[in-house]
Amino acid sequence: MAERYDHASIEAKWQSRWEKGRAAFVDTAEPGDKFYMLNMFPYPSGSRLHVGHGRNYILGDALYRFERMKGRRVLNPMGWDAFGLPAENAAIASGTPPREYTLANIARMKEQLRSLGLLYDWSKELASCDPDYYRWNQWLFLRMWERGLAYRKQAPVNWCPGCRTVLANEQVVDGRCERSGDAVELRDLTQWFLRITHYADRLLAGLDELPHWSDRVKTMQRNWIGRSRGAEIEFRVEGFEEPVTVFTTRPDTLFGATFLALAPEHPAAQEIVRRAGPDSAAARFVERVRRESRLERESETGEKKGLDTGVWAVHPGSGERIPIWLANFVLPEYGTGAIMGVPAHDGRDFEFARKYRLPVRPVYRGPEGDVDPETMTGPTPQGGVLVRSGDWDGTPEGEAAIARAIAWVEAKGVGRGKVGYRLRDWLISRQRYWGTPIPAIHCEKDGVVPVPDRDLPVLLPRDVAFRGVEGNPLARSESFVNVECPVCGGPARRETDTMDTFVDSSWYYLRFLAPGDSERMVDSSRAHAWMPVDQYIGGIEHAILHLLYARFICRVLKDLGLVELEEPFERLFNQGMITRLNPSTGKIEKMSKSRGNTVSPDELIARFGADTVRVYTLFIGPPEKESEWSEEGVLGASRFLNRVHEVASRAAELPRGGDGGKREASDLDRLTHRTIRRVTEDAERFHFHTAVAALMEFQRGIADALDGEETPEAIRAAVQTLLKLLQPVAPHLTEEWWERLGGGKSLLETSWPAYDPALATTARVTLVVQINGRVRGRLDLERGAAEAEAVALARADEKIRPWVEGKQIARAVYVPDRLLNLVVQ
User: Fold this and answer.
1) Under a CB-based contact definition with an 8 Å cutoff, are residues 85 and 168 in contact?
2) Which of 219, 679, 683, 816 is deepest in the core (most CB within 10 A)?
3) Average pLDDT for residues 505-529, to the nearest whole number?
């Protein structure tokens, strides 16, 4: 009888051996056949990871081991996105300084990563809160300042009058401060920006060079950059010297404009308020809107609020007078901060016009003929020809109509064609302590001047009290604020804003190549050898800001001569979330501590072992999809590993010698080669869930062979192949049995198995899949596929998935090669 599977001692043994042997160390001075893989580095906001976090890292480790065994020189570093708001909030709540809080969290999270058997090159470890790291944020900022890519201007911020401090958007809940409950105001402060808009076209063009990024992510970035061709059109304002200029992507609908709407922050709006007086309706409206959050104002479903200013503009085409309104949904940073309202052809404008009884004037006639503006329930569908538009009448909707409109406004001298962008410059100022200090000094004589390179890094002071009131904590540190001007030597004040933490994560992938380099930000020779990152792994929530900023900064570094490439990440994989029942709502929701539905890997590791957690996390479903956590699934993974332990134990007891000659391929041989092919193909496309299913079938085949007439040598060879194929998924158990069976060196130093195509070929069948007795799809799979593989493929299938997502599979009825019926609840 096989000895008990003692996961605790096996895992402790191998984790210690990997650490002492620096199993993942790579000398980046010698790239060889390099493969640079990277998980988005974590933010140590809490002391413990849950299994939802673990999916990202377990997936990355499985890929790391797979690539290692394929003979690649794999760099797999780890670091910490250590600055940010939660640490500062914790300091306010507990009195623990942010640095101490963060470093303690890092230590605990690092131990959790190790306990899962994750191999990282810890010699490359970095934390963005380390002065040796953020010094280079400051150096880069100074180079961008020199080139006009960093600048200051006024911008609105969330201001809490109770705490007397600036709040991040995350700290504003329903328009109120999450700490004090006070109504949040919008105030203008002079802040620092990075000029990402100068790179808009390069960022767009680069997306076409990323074939290994999902279309979803590339579309999100294209939409965020939002390049659009249109026109700026001037409307003369009665009683005002300056016209109001609008930007529109639909200048062809100019004759359908029945009103103008201004952002309350627009200069013309401010002049209207000045003329009307501080107690006027216009002044009160502007003040109310400034209290609204940007999320409220930008929301498509939010209430559209407006005020008739009583001021009139003159339509540049018809000459008629149209009213000027203030509107909450018009934002100062989009376009010109003013829009022409065309309610017949824009949903937002239509909603606003109906609410305030403004005219609706269709200027396109579709195939069904004219529509009655009084009975319209929404904007007209696209298509048709222009009407009621003077010389433009009869022009079909499309590029020709837009081009004709642009030519007209330019000929009339009332506008010009323009390419517009949704993208705005990157506001990096944060009125918080726990971030990179911006290296600038304010002098009454010399103005705002840069900190000299020789004085970097500008260090965060330690003499700061965190009370959550009285503004930025840095501003209260006299030792930090009071400084000598580097130009005139007179008294000056240091900049107290810190940088957005996205700056930290915009270039860290380059620092991993030489983290201890004190002479330069980037080792250009190593960047040439190792970049781009071959595989980047992280959540879809970073699809826009982090990835866009990293792509931007990589281009800046190229322009500075530090790197040769523009795109830092060759392949991108976004893992799906793990969900679980929320006990308070009874719904299946994303795992979150606040929802009370997290699962600690620590408890599972203690009970079942890290390999069980890894197997189930990879088997739970397609890694790019949302998957529901199941305690029964964990038990299934544990049973599988116990069966692997048992077949390895039995193989070790088989007699040696004999059968050294040539023999015909057996069923076990064919199963072995089919499994190698399936697992290899699945691993290459991240589908470890179906790879695990194939390995479960393989283990059963070996168990059957042990009870049959297969030779001991063939069984031992099959078990050794099973251990190799299972190594990326369950590394501790496989290393243990590889050693016990006389494998010698670590599995990581062995070669990934190869298959014989002639033996790996098998017939394929079409399997009918029913859900609760009704046919919901069909699967193409190999003849003789095991139930576990069939179920895994069914859960991943696009047609079947909606019928099982968020539900428990109570029972599976499987007729091999013919039918799979899943009973779900």
Assistant:
1) yes
2) 679
3) 97
Burial environment of residue 623 by CB neighbours within 10 A (0 to 12, 13 to 18, 19 or more):
buried
DSSP secondary structure string, 452-507? PGGG---PPPS-----S-SS-GGGG-HHHHEEE-TTT-SEEEE---EE-TTTGGGS
Band of pLDDT at residue 798, cut at 50, 70 and 90: confident
Cα separation of 812 and 825, whole Å? 12
Residue 616 and residue 434: Cα distance in Å, rounded? 38
Strands (E), 334-409: 338-341, 364-365, 385-386
Q: pLDDT of 588-644, one tens digit each?
A: 888 877 677 888 899 999 999 999 999 999 999 999 988 889 889 999 999 999 999
Q: Taking the complete model, does pTM exceed 0.70, yes or no? A: yes
Instruction: Output phi, psi for 244, to 5 deg.
Output: -100, 125
Both tokens of 642, joined, read 């116990």
Q: How many of the other CB atoms lie within 10 Å of CB of 726?
A: 25
CA 515 – CA 28 distance, rounded (Å): 11
Please write the tens of the pLDDT for every residue from 541-581: 888 899 999 999 999 999 999 999 999 999 999 998 888 88
> Which tokens belong to 444?
């009454």
Separation CA 823–CA 770 (nearest Å)? 8
Q: From CA 787, how far away is CA 794, in angstroms rounded?
A: 10
The two tokens of residue 2 are 């096989």
CB neighbours of residue 813 within 10 Å: 12
